[in-house]
Amino acid sequence: MADSAGIQQGSPAIGAAGLVPAAPGAGGTEGSGAAGGSARIAVKKAQLRSSPRPKKLEKLGVYSSCKAEGACKCNGWKSQNPPPTPPQTDQQSNAVNLQEPCRSCSHTLGDHVTHLENVSEEEMNRLLGIVLDVEYLYTCVHKEEDADTKQVYFSLFKLLRKSILQMGKPMLEAQESPPFEKPSIEQGVNNFVQYKFSHLPSKERQTIMELAKMFLNQINYWQLETPSQRRQRVPNDDAAGYKANYTRWLCYCNVPQFCDSLPRYETTQIFGRTLLRSVFTVMRKQLLEQARQEKDKLPPEKRTLILTHFPKFLSMLEEEVYSHSSPIWSQDFLAGAAGGQIPIHTVISAPPVARPLYYSTSPVSVDPSTCGSVSPARKTASVLETNPVGEKRKPTEPLHHEENKRPRVVGDIPMDLINEVMATITDPAAIPETSLLSAHSARDEAARLEERRGVIEFHVIGNSLNQKPNKRILMWLVGLQNVFSHQLPRMPKEYITRLVFDPKHKTLSLIKDGRVIGGICFRMFPSQGFTEIVFCAVTSNEQVKGYGTHLMNHLKEYHIKHEILNFLTYADEYAIGYFKKQGFSKDIKVPKAKYVGYIKDYEGATLMGCELNPSIPYTEFSVIIKKQKEIIKKLIERKQAQIRKVYPGLSCFKDGVRQIPIESIPGIRETGWKPVGKGKELKDPDQLYSTLKTILQHVKSHQNAWPFMEPVKKTEAPGYYQVIRFPMDLKTMSERLKSRYYTTRKLFMADMQRIFTNCREYNPPESEYYKCANLLEKFFYTKIKEAGLIEK
């Protein structure tokens, strides 16, 4: 097998016309050699299958036991003039003689192939394919130097040999059959795309899907290093587990690429996280190294995309691969989003045929052994942390491809129109990155652009008493101590040093040009449900650039992933303004009993708290808001373009007409105005209250109202509030009615309609709840019409 240290050990040439897997036992993995080996096998099979029938019988006779009377034990006809070893498949010009005796048992060739006389051409061609696979494996056994690989080749050789003798189909005998781990690598990457990128617009999400396809394709044609090579590289690894997976990979994925008589599976579909962990680090390193070497060969149309996004994609995926708490490897990752009712839709799958890989390298490399968790743009393997900073999380809204299946809500803007408008909005990735930002830009926009370019990085780091000191991390901790000491002069330096280097504290550090320019030191209290922010500072010459806001947003993302949703901090008079801008307030949501005795009390400081919303992607929040504003602006422009027609003024009043119907005004309908029909809007608040109260009582008394009486409990419907963004129930409506919230009939009807819409969105049509919603909705509108609030 090829040496794992070489770049070509697992990755065929980028600039090649297509990726071709390396032939097992070929002694190398260069694309051209692999392509030639695969092509030669296919040509030989085609030649042999097009040969005359006697020639086919002669070939099969070599692998067929003698059928002559007298219980001959010969297991294959041997020619008097044996061909060179290994047997060749080149067609011979001389005619085949079925009466030629066997060199071993002296019986004729015909005695060895009597069982094939009535066999169809199709079956004979199948057996001939197995014959050539046997001869190919025979070559592999003799050429292979690795003992483990040689043993697998020999086992497969015997299996195929037996299949020819018994005229059966080769069936691998193993304790387990594919798939060997769930979820598979393919499903895990699907989940990863949903988890991190489902909030992106369709164009950007399609880019991510293309990167994911390239990654899956590489795994399917990746040459695993042998167990002996891996033992030398990773001595403390689970050798037995890797050897088992390596054997399975050879039998089900690698060898069948060439020996097509064996059933073949895609690596990404039958293996899971365990195998991916064993190859990811080496694979990522070699792919990026090869990209650096061959970046000039990338097609111009792919260069910008690949040189920007693929390293980031791999870094973000790496964090999820090695994280012990990543949700993408849960089998109910998407099923839990709607109580098991939403089927898992495959977003991406590995291409069935290999194709060129185009990707990029990061502008600055970070040594995996010298850093903790880093920002999405710069992530690598972590020593102290396995959880990333600032990554996107599982979406709380329904998936994009389910939008068309959702019941429409009155007033909703059609998704077709939204998508059409989105297509006209400039792609953020294509916006020129300039320091001359708009005066209306978000505070963290400049910092976000710098992170995207790789100018700044974010790392969660901390001291450790259990691991060998890491020089780079220790240098960063010293840098953080200096920043905090200079920016917080009233804090004793000894106190700052003690907390920064305390193993119980961590610091989200901001790195620029390899040096620390800011950070947030914090201590997590998972059992109490909050984190205390101890120090927060950015060096003076790097302030007013949005770094502080972006730091806090990364910290929020980090804590949401760790399921801690409350921050507490003591802020002095100079910091209160900053924390207010970051969503902190003096209204503390954490019960006092939870934090008293846990956090440090500072004299003259103000205790402030911040409650996090797990539905918000904080690092991208301002981008999302900006995009929403652009969408609304475009919709308004479109509407204005439709109604921009100028109509003449009304002249009827000059003729003595005192009033006219609203709908008769020219152009009024084009603005979107609709007549209310015969329904009346009750202007008397007491009369409206009485009417709505009567209708609500009728609805609550209906036999189908029982599912909607109170808010849905999380224990009864896990994941409900991740799917339903605006819950509503009859109890809440009663409370709103008492507080005189319903100032118009439309508000009341909108809340009631929301109950029915939510029910149909969450539950399947065949469920009892769905049917109750339909029946109660029909009853409700009957009562509304009877009250004269809408047209009958």
Q: Give the proportion of residues in helices.
A: 40-55%
Looking at the structure, the CATH topology of the largest domain is Aminopeptidase
Strand order of the largest sheet: 1-2-3-4-5-6-7
Number of individual domains: 5
Taking pLDDT < 50 over at least 5 consecutive residues as the criterion, the unreliable ranges are 1-23, 25-35, 89-93, 335-410, 427-440
Number of DSSP helical runs: 25
| CATH homologous superfamily label of the largest domain | Gcn5-related N-acetyltransferase (GNAT)
Over all CA atoms, what is the radius of gyration?
35 Å
User: What general outline do the C-alpha atoms trace?
Assistant: extended
| Overall strand count | 7
CATH architecture of the largest domain: 3-Layer(aba) Sandwich
Indicate the mean pLDDT. Answer: 76
Give the end-to-end Cα distance, rounded to a whole number of Å.
Answer: 80 Å
Find the structural class using helix and strand composition.
mainly alpha
Describe the largest sheet: 7 strands, mixed
Question: What is the CATH C-level name of the largest domain?
Answer: Alpha Beta
| Percent of sequence in beta strands | 5-15%
